[in-house]
Amino acid sequence: MTLLYVLCYNYNLKNIATEPKKMTGIIAVHCGAGSHSSSHYAKYNKLSKKACKKGVEVLLNGGSALDAVKVVIAVLENDPLTNCGYGSNLTMDGRVEGDASVMDGRTLIYGGCGAVRNVKNPIHLAYDICVKQLTPLPLGLIPPSLLVGKGALEQARASRVKTVNQKSLISPKAWSQFVKYKKKLEAEKSAELLDTVGAVCLDKNGDVAAGCSSGGILLKRPGRVGQAAIYASGVWADSFNKEAENPVAVCTSGCGEHLVRTHLAQTISEDIKNCSCPTKALSDSITQRFLNSRYLQSVSNKLCGALVLHVDNQTGDISVLWAHTTQTMSVGFMTCLDKKATAVVSQLPDDVPVGVKVNVSGVFHRKE
């Protein structure tokens, strides 16, 4: 299999660590890997910048990477442009069922929720599940790391995570797509719309976090849970031993079933963590562990996207990378020293087939 390898340094990321003591963090987001209409590129870029700005505000006010990830993804969930929260793809029976997860690199604790109905911001519930695992329960009970369906909704209500009626979660766009593709499905011409959102973050303490949220594949079966909720598949973050090992955070997008089979978020993290060249390691990881994975041998078009934040402790390099085998991937990033965020919709070249090759791009800072 021929690898398409594209590395871009032309986004002019400022020197975000020239003076390490002033470095107070960086946030990067994606609005999905899939097939984004070129007529909406400006809208995706505007939304990415808006989300990044909110995340930087959290970091500048002393918030942790995990706090920033929660806030950033909630911004994306509240916009009908994305497939999460309000505007999520609908299930076969016309409902919104959200998946979300977060992972705190400082503690290595993950929290996720899947196929949850009536929760306005599933990322808030995932965050709640994550942080409550640090609170001991009576009688030696173990706090859950993943809740789905009715149990997830019950915890949301008990924790005062905002719940709403189903109708308020369905955007006009989502309903229109539901009607359109349900008719096509009946004619055996269904389509997958893959645009899970995600974020990775580095805070002033050198800790990282990752999060993602998704409405799932359009016309999914009720109760289906995708990678956005599943451990090691949607997110991975590790700064547990940051003095000795390189911090890294990853969030993924694409076809959830493919990402779950390959545990792609953790896989990429392990491959890139202590490498000498994160860009090459990322391209090799997706090529060898996803496109050529034995777990996907029966799949012809392998659809994924990944957003990666990598810190090299020895050189001081900080890399923000993204890779996708889909037609497009919408990304944005901002440091706490920047006045404004940068956003771009990454594209496969026109002559490159979807699902069989990977496009790798990114920005980095090398310490002077």
Which outline best applies? globular
The helicity comes to: 25-40%
Low-confidence stretches: 1-21
- How many β-strands, per DSSP? 13
> Describe the biggest sheet?
8 strands, mixed
In short:
Helix content is 27%, strand content 24%.
What does this 3D model show about the protein?
By secondary structure, the protein is an alpha+beta fold. The protein contains eight helices and 13 strands. Strands 4-3-2-6-5-1-11-12 form an eight-stranded mixed sheet. Strands 7-8-9-10-13 form a five-stranded antiparallel sheet. Helix 1 runs antiparallel to helix 2 and helix 7 runs antiparallel to helix 8. The N terminus is likely disordered.
Topology, element by element:
Layout: E1 25-34, H1 41-60, H2 65-77, E2 98-104, E3 109-116, H3 122-131, E4 146-148, H4 149-158, H5 172-186, E5 197-203, E6 208-214, E7 235-238, E8 248-254, H6 256-262, H7 264-272, H8 278-291, E9 304-311, E10 318-324, E11 328-335, E12 342-347, E13 359-365
Parallel strand pairs: 3-4
Antiparallel strand pairs: 1-5, 1-11, 2-3, 2-6, 5-6, 7-8, 8-9, 9-10, 10-13, 11-12
